[in-house]
Design goal:
This protein is mainly alpha-helical and about 40 residues long. The protein has 2 helices and no strands. Keywords: Membrane, Transmembrane, Transmembrane helix.
């Protein structure tokens, strides 16, 4: 979660929350794909 907090702190204060949510969803999706590849 450290890279997420660092990226959030690096963003402008005017960044919409929706953008943050989209980034979180993308990270979770990427983690799911990595998990699937590791299972195989």
């Amino acid at each position: 979660m450290n890279h997420v907090t660092m990226a959030y702190k690096g963003w402008p204060s005017g960044t919409p929350i929706t953008v943050l949510v989209i980034v979180i969803i993308a990270v979770l999706a990427l983690a799911a794909v990595i998990g699937r590849t590791k299972r195989k």
